[in-house]
Amino acid sequence: MKNKIVFSLGLVAMTLMAGSALAADKLVLQLKWVTQGQFAGYYVAKDKGFYEEAGLDVEIKPGGPDVAPPQVIAGGGADVVVDWMPSALATREKGLPLVNIAQPFKRSGMMLTCRKETGITKPEDFKGKTLGVWFGGNEYPFLSWMNHLGLKTDGGPDGVTVLKQGFNVDPLIQKQADCISTMTYNEYWQVIDAGIPADQLVTFKYEDEKVATLEDGLYVLQKSLDDPKMVEKLAKFVKASMKGWDYARANPDEAATIVLDNDASGAQTEKHQKRMVAEINKLTEGSDGVLDVAAAERTVETLLGGGSDPVITKKPEGAWTTKITDAAK
Hints:
Strand order of the largest sheet: 2-1-3-10-4
Shape: globular
CATH architecture of the largest domain: 3-Layer(aba) Sandwich
Helix content: 40-55%
Number of strands: 10
């Protein structure tokens, strides 16, 4: 009799667990890049149970050099993607209706890092220099910046030579470029770790030069916003994600450890991830996830001012919404 009772209780427990699992709403998040501190808030939200508390079963898919978030969501491989606004707006203009539903990053981390020995002390000194630039949509803020400076990018004597930069810092280390593209939270520190001290470097932050564009926003397809059940799910996701970012700012070292625990590649180091989370926290500080429309409009103006080949040709309509962040409140 006792065995029957134990078995019955076990069956009830299993049934309840199964019911709980079935009740959790599945949601897939595609990251813009590999597992690293740049995405700490999402990994923290999953690890600390914030998504589970919201009734969500969130799968986080790492990105990489061969992963384009817009293509993933277009193919049905994700419900939400992390992307930079230049890429999202370009994709939207080409026909895929991506919409920004939240903006955890308030500030840009993009900058040019130069060797001091080149004599560059101000943007006007770029003339005649070789500058490393990321492409794949990341080049447009740079092109807009050069256009504002009146510098051509064709390699002529009155402009700059653009070196298509890979996702590393080799051009600066090997002196193939006078300056390279870096993020405040990643490649800049790779330069430092490579043996070039900070006092031998000069940096120009896109934020300071007034040519920054919004980075690391959350985007969905328009059809998701037309589905009331999905809207409810997305609101829960954004709220739990921002809770994760709040926790990461309050507990940066723990957040870095959580990121490392989720790094299947084993390529990340504790030192680098702790620094990255600390720098990322500066970019998300003060954000409640609500998009700053003025910042979005500045991004649009920057992209439209990219010279003869702008990333977008007209101001977008319906490219962002507060529908989800309003519901999350």
